[in-house]
Amino acid sequence: MTVAVLFARADSVYKTLPGCDVWDAERDARRWPGGAPVVAHPPCRAWGRLRHFAKPRPDEKDLARLAVRHVRRWGGVLEHPKGSTLWADQGLPAPGQRDAFGGWTLPIHQSWWGHRAEKATVLYVLGCEPGDIPPMPLVLGDAPCVIGSSGRRRDGTRAHRPETTKAEREHTPPPLAVWLVELAKRCAR
User: Fold this and answer.
1) How far is CA 99 from the centre of its chain?
2) Per DSSP, what are the bridge partners of residue 23?
């Protein structure tokens, strides 16, 4: 089964994975014809916690809305940072709840799949029950790096760890990409 990967980076790890139909900026995911479950990574800078510092293109917010429509139509998973305002904008459910389409939200930390920073993330999943997702790793303790300059732990204490590079912040760890593709396959509608 083929999985469509929408809004991928030009240098995306998904391009190295079998069974992925990857749509980056050059292919333009707005032209994707549908027909397969999706892994959607729409731009998040207009939706994230630091959106007031971002300078997104005028159409960027609509890319995330389109990604939600594709997940709802074809099944799959949409990935965005924890705290994304896309959830309120599109009526996406809080963890432990379902939306009118049957979709649900799974909070993860990308460090569980090898990211050097915790990178708290939320996944909107539709077409697969929570008990049917692929096995997930669980890694306890602090990640070796932080994203952003705050360097604060969840408990508010200062963490003296290096900051990731911009490229590291944007790349999906290869094991997470493999896991997301497997999840999307299980979400086929």
Assistant:
1) 18
2) 6
Q: How many domains does the chain have?
A: 1
List, for residues 138-184, the tens digit of each pLDDT value: 888 888 778 765 555 666 666 577 776 666 667 789 999 999 999 99
What is the strand order of the sheet 38-40 is part of? 20-24, 3-8, 38-40, 76-81, 120-126, 104-109
Identify the band that residue 7 occupies on the pLDDT scale cut at 50, 70 and 90: very high
163 inside domain: no
pLDDT of residue 9: 92
Q: How far is CA 41 from CA 71, 90, 170, in A?
A: 11, 16, 10
Answer yes or no: are the C-beta atoms of 74 and 41 closer than 8 Å: no
CATH number of the domain to which 100 belongs: 3.40.50
Identify the residue whose tokens are 């969840």.
154
By the 8 A CB rule, do 106 and 69 touch? no
Distance from C-alpha of 171 to C-alpha of 69, rounded to nearest angstrom:
24
> What is the rounded distance in angstroms from the CA atom of residue 9 to the CA atom of residue 14?
9
Cβ atoms 46, 60 nearer than 8 A: yes
β-strands 76-81, 3-8 pairing: unpaired
